[in-house]
Write a structure and sequence with these properties.
The complex is a heterodimer of chains A (250) and B (315). Chain A is an all-alpha fold and 250 residues long. Chain A contains ten helices and no strands. In chain A, helix 5 (92-113) packs across helix 7 and helix 6 (119-148) runs antiparallel to helix 7. Chain B contains twelve helices and two strands; from the N terminus they run ααααααααααββαα. Chain B has helices spanning 3-18, 31-50, 52-56, 65-90, 96-105, 122-139, 148-176, 180-199, 211-216, 224-241, 267-277, 281-314; strands at residues 252-254, 259-261. In chain B, strand 1 and strand 2 (259-261) form a beta hairpin. Chain B is globular and about 70 Å long. The chains are: A mainly alpha (250), B mainly alpha (315).
Amino acid sequence: MNNDLYTYTLRIADDSLILGQRLSELCGHGPILEEDIALTNIALDLIGQATTLFEYAATVQNEGKTADDLAFLRYEHDYKNVLLVEQTNGDFGQTIVRQWLFDTFRVLFYDALQHSSDTQLAAIAEKSLKETKYHCKHSSEWVIRLGDGTEESHSRTQDALDLLWRYSDELFFMDETDQAMIAAKVGVDLAALRPIWMERIQEVVQAATLTIPTNNWKQQGGRLGKHTEHLGFLLADLQYMQRAYPGMQW
Amino acid sequence: MKETNLEALETAFQAKIDKDIRIEPKDWMPEEYRKTLIRQISQHAHSEIVGMLPEGNWITRAPNLRRKAVLLAKVQDEAGHGLYLYSAVETLGADREATIDDLHSGKAKYSSIFNYPTLSWADMGAIGWLVDGAAIMNQVPLCRCSYGPYARAMVRVCKEESFHQRQGFEIMSTLANGTPIQKALAQDALNRFWWPALMMFGPNDSDSPHSQQSMDWKIKRFSNDELRQTFVDVTVPQAEMIGLTIPDPDLKFNEETGHYEFGAINWDEFWEVVKGNGPCNADRIAARRNAKENGQWVREAAMAHEEKRKAKQAS
């Protein structure tokens, strides 16, 4: 098995799965019906992306496992998503800021990944890019509405940004897996995306009359399987059926 | 308005109905017709929205990726149905937020089936199969309802509901053909949802106060008991096909009539649930109220931003 390709694919898949799972907690509880539909739709896209990515990861791994085995039957430290996506939904401001920091990254990432020499990853990226652009438009517009809206919405959104900013650095985390994938022309050089990401974030921050936190304290570890306390509970829900009724077909 | 004018309008209105000409939002209609439709369509919309909760309860715990995606899509469809139906209510001059407030205050009702808890994954199958199945029986005739916007909304809603019904049956059939534990889950879900599903058609015809007028206005095309009978006739063979047992010792097929005869429905339970004393009434309304209250600042922000944007454009 190509270990680097497996880990690389799994990291992308886990980001989609965990964020999709978080958003799906909100189904039926959105602040307005139209937003309930929008967030559920985004959750659905992310679960769809995760499914194709896990299918590919399972093929690369070549141990006879299925996409569901990878999604549902790993231990906590085997999940490689960034810490940002496992953070709780909080209020709508927190949900949207988390989404926007991630979507802005994801658009740039898929845009680059569609030129990967790995045709499977390139195809997944090309397909996912289309929907991710919509997600990013949606979350960016909401950040602007909330930041600019009322005093209360401004302060809630600024609080969310202050809380989540520390997790944004990890979106650009790279280690030897990334280096190997970049060398093979499979992976994306995230360092090159960072200035464009920052520029896009700043544009929205300005339109939203928000301020980028000066505190540059950074949290990372998710990519290596060291998570925040939130992930365990999310996985307890996610894995409940597979753990309680092992080995059954649904 | 003079009485003679009113009478003439009412006669013309009923003549249109009798000729199966659709009533459209700008047409004249009797106040009672309008009120009946506002009540019925808004309750239908509330049922779609409250109905998201029992299934939403299992999205994060769905057993695999495919089931999770299908369930998300299904619950999202329900939200979409709610949206068309609230729009249909607005064509009658009612305010969407006001009808939602009536739901939250307990003034407006919704389908009592959603006040039952979803206790296992099998309930996702039972709800799709039985609850969406019963909803289709009720809703297919509404595609020919005399009020145009409601009838047109129902055409799309029914297409999606019929898909949901098949998905639910497929979940049940997978479980019924699975391990003994899975089959037991399926049977338990059927036991809990069968009678509440029969109650979805409403009281017996003899106890249904609004029915006759609604039939004359062609809002309703079949009586509660007729629809319930059709549902039983269709569903019993489906249960047999997958090896599950309908929890009714009195159920038997009558060769002469060609219909299944079934046991007595517990109407005391039905009225208790309608009054608010079902297992989940309080939780369901609390969840909807919370969503509205927690979203208040979001809606205010969106409006404030829009105002500022317009002001900027104007200057």
